[in-house]
Amino acid sequence: MTLTVKLAQRLRLMECVMKRLAFVWGFLLTFLVFSFCLYYGSVDLSLNDVWHGLQAVWHQAPITSTPAQIIYHIRLPRVLAASQVGISLALAGATMQALLRNPLADGSTLGISSAASLGAVLTIIIGFQSKNLPWRGTVIGAILFALLGFILIFTLAYRRDRRINNLTVILLGLILSMLTSSIMSLFMAFSQEKLERIVFWTMGSLSGSSYHDVALLCFANLVFGGIAMSKRRELDAFALGEEQAYHLGIDTERTRWLLFLSASGLIGCAVAVSGNIAFVGLIVPHACRIIIGPRNQRLLPVVIFAGANFLMLVDLLARTLISPRELPIGVITSIIGALLLGYLFLQRGSSHAKS
């Protein structure tokens, strides 16, 4: 066995060990953040209260004490929903950015989030509820309109250019975003009695999250997120360009449709539960790329942990910063996102000036 082969085997073994260590550390960090978010809140609870509350949930015992009720009915479903929404938005953002080779691609810039928000606002205005389904009307409306937005963008892009140019997709997404935002503003102007609920929801909130919402998000992450995770090699090939990906034997058109469908499904389900939380799909992938680089084989698993931790902590800030009142989550993420984009702009400007 030559020295080169031995070296390659050793490097492969080290990479495998590093992947497993990164997974263990990511899981431990997520567990610590999850536990802290359960423990800390506007109502002071002891660690013993949290433990007994979780035991009651696990053993399905009757919940009688107030701390256990707070854990079971309020904090646990909310923290679980925050983690799953963070995973959905971060994974969708990373997928779209890799696919379009554009660091600013996200559900917000492609109009999917706005379309989902429009669907939810419509259900709020007409008061749609279905007793035969476990989810709120906003959930059904948001998911349907997110998928309709995806179909509309790609149908128009396909009619204009059979190869579906990336720039065309981004421009159509911006047009859809502006159109749906205008329609929402029009509806809000004629729905004064429901204006406060609509405005607060469109800025993002996880208050009132239920276990049905958590189940929906887990299902979406398993199905749509599983598709994105299984196509990491293809996403790395797309980073080289569509022609290079095609020459590597990848069905670029089918892969693009499939990945955009999965990203739209992730965004639709997230917006359906939490409202329109902006910039998560931009902030988390950018931060992860700075730390571990742009290769999607490594990036996407890290994005999952980072997205969950980021939104759990942001939700904790939202419900404790001005307690007992609550801030919309979208306000906090928008501030962080604006600061990050400003920093990236200044960094790029300074690097161009030096060159």
Automatic annotation (TrEMBL):
Q: Which residues cross the membrane?
A: 21-41, 79-100, 107-129, 135-157, 169-190, 257-279, 299-318, 327-346
What superkingdom heads the lineage?
Answer: Bacteria
- DNA damage among the record's keywords? no
The stretch of residues making up the signal peptide is none
Bilayer topology annotation: Multi-pass membrane protein
Subcellular location field? Cell membrane
Instruction: Report a single Gene Ontology molecular function.
Output: transmembrane transporter activity
The record's listing under PANTHER family reads: ABC TRANSPORTER PERMEASE PROTEIN MJ0876-RELATED, FERRIC ENTEROBACTIN TRANSPORT SYSTEM PERMEASE PROTEIN
Q: What protein name applies here?
A: Iron ABC transporter permease
What is the organism field in this record? Suicoccus acidiformans
